[in-house]
Amino acid sequence: MSETTTRPAPGAHIADPAALGLGAFALTTFVLSVVNAGIVPDKVEPVVFGLAFAYGGVAQLAAGLWEFAKGNTFGATAFCSYGAFWLSFWWLTGHTDLSGAGADVNKGLGVYLLAWGIFTLYMTVAAIRVSGAVLLVFVLLTITYFLLAFGEFGTSSGLTKAGGYVGLLTAIAAWYASFATVVNVTFKRTVMPTLPR
């Protein structure tokens, strides 16, 4: 008679990195979106750079790597990708001289944002199987990227401001998803619903 050994799932001993990843994404998105929405002057945009590097970039990248350890393909792809987005944003806006591009700089930024919108759109399809809270984040983020992209293509401050306001909603939705993860894990029961699929 052979004994059956039950093994824990890969990464079962690792804390859920989603709370960190969502929190890092939410806070950095919130601060940038306040600027994009025109709530504060765009000359203060450099306050985002440190956040983009440390919290939006490094912390999210770390969360994504831990999602790999837990065997979560969606979480790993999302957090590593958006961590890379924030690192690239930090480099692009704080360390890249785009003055040589002249009027074409808006086209370049438009393509950059459009590409991230396309990536976010296909991640939104996968988010349908994650939770209602995460799905809402991705739907709003897709809209944000497309508004900001077309704002750049058309040099439209109106579209950019609209993207900023939808970005604020995206940040709030991501903060909720992070908050729900922390609270539900800490209390060991569902306190804040996320509408799991």
UniProtKB/TrEMBL annotation:
Which keywords are on file for this protein?
Membrane, Transmembrane, Transmembrane helix
GO molecular-function annotation terms? acetate transmembrane transporter activity
Q: Name one GO cellular component term.
A: plasma membrane
State a single Pfam family of this protein: Gpr1_Fun34_YaaH
* Cell compartments where the protein resides: Membrane
Q: How does it sit in the membrane?
A: Multi-pass membrane protein
- Give the main location: membrane
Residue ranges annotated as transmembrane are: 47-66, 73-91, 111-128, 135-153, 165-187
Is rRNA processing given among the entry's keywords?
no
Q: List the PANTHER family hit by this protein, alphabetically.
A: ACCUMULATION OF DYADS PROTEIN 2-RELATED
Q: What protein family does this chain belong to? A: Belongs to the acetate uptake transporter (AceTr) (TC 2.A.96) family.
NCBIfam families under this entry?
Answer: AceTr_1
The protein here is known as: Uncharacterized protein
Native organism:
Flexivirga endophytica
